[in-house]
């Protein structure tokens, strides 16, 4: 079976994106004041303890001048079932977004102080008071890739029914503009510096092997994320490693209206891969990519009235 779609759309800014109160907090990483301590070198009027390698203030909040986002997308794919209970899916997607509503990252502002001079608010003595990172309409996004899936279910046997499925996404291209009509920057498979999408993984998938028999069910799950180019890639061209975890769970449905599940997340206690990211109020790993909790146990009960 073949399938295809084409659509256009828009997204109006949310109430918070428009009316969110402006508040001041700290930057997630440390920076040098580009005017008083460029490159870590003190300039006349500068103070090392105030202007160099510091967390500065940043203003967050809404923007009443936002326009709606606009988008268009195209998908084409197929579903193939060569034999009973075995199915393969492949879908291509191409998505474009214009006037994306987001915040310009603090790193982008500090890395290009000339272009973003209006984002620096200074005190009377010339020292940096705060930078502005409120919501705004940035440039566009162009992304394309493939969603793939494979599923199989066995016939019922004397020992139960077995199954397998895997669903993954491969990003062939991801580009964005930091400002309207700006330069297109390709970031597929790398750290982006964008507040709304910090990492664009080339490939990730979830795979499951399961067994069901009468009131019992078991599931073993693999979660895989392909490694990516780190934030500070000039640090020996650092690349964050692949990240794989396994979960297992068992469910019993023999009670009336009650379902009990117990399991283990991250069975092998896999540590997050090392990262030199510095824009998340911490260093060593990126919590947006990996879970630092390690092996954890859980029990869950679901009762239907």
TrEMBL record:
It is a multi-pass membrane protein. InterPro entries: Beta-barrel_TonB, Beta-barrel_TonB_sf, TonB-dep_rcpt-like. Residues 2-267 form the TonB-dependent receptor-like beta-barrel domain. Its main location: membrane. Signal peptide: none annotated. It is found in: Cell outer membrane. Keywords: Cell outer membrane, Membrane, TonB box, Transmembrane, Transmembrane beta strand, Transport. Coiled coil: none annotated. GO terms for cellular component: cell outer membrane. Belongs to the TonB-dependent receptor family. This is TonB-dependent receptor-like beta-barrel domain-containing protein. It comes from Acinetobacter seifertii.
């Amino acid at each position: 079976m073949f399938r295809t779609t084409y659509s256009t759309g828009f997204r109006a800014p949310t109430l918070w994106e428009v009316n969110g109160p402006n508040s001041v907090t700290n930057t997630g990483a440390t920076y040098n004041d580009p005017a008083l301590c460029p490159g870590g070198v003190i300039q006349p009027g500068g103070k090392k303890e105030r202007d160099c390698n510091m967390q500065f203030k940043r203003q967050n909040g809404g923007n009443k001048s936002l326009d709606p986002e606009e988008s268009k997308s195209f998908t084409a794919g197929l579903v193939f079932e060569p034999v009973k209970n075995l199915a393969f899916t492949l879908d291509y997607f191409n998505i474009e977004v214009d006037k994306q509503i987001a915040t310009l990252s603090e790193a982008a502002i500090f890395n290009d102080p000339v272009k973003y001079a209006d984002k620096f608010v200074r005190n009377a003595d010339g020292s940096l008071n705060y930078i502005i990172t409120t919501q705004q309409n940035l440039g566009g996004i162009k992304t394309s890739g493939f969603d793939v899936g494979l599923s199989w279910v066995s016939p019922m046997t004397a020992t139960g029914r077995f199954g397998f499925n895997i669903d993954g996404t491969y990003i062939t291209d991801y580009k964005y503009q930091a400002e309207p009509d700006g330069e297109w920057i390709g970031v597929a498979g790398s750290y982006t510096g964008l507040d709304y999408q910090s990492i664009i993984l080339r490939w990730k998938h979830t795979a499951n092997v399961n067994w069901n028999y009468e009131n019992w069910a078991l599931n073993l799950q693999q979660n895989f994320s392909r490694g990516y180019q780190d934030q500070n890639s000039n640090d020996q061209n650092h690349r964050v490693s692949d990240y794989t975890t396994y979960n297992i769970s068992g469910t019993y449905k023999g009670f009336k209206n009650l379902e009990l599940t117990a399991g283990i997340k991250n069975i092998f206690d896999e540590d997050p891969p090392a990262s030199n990211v510095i824009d998340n109020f911490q260093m060593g790993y990126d919590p947006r990519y990996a879970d630092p909790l390690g092996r954890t146990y859980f029990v869950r009960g679901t009762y239907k009235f």
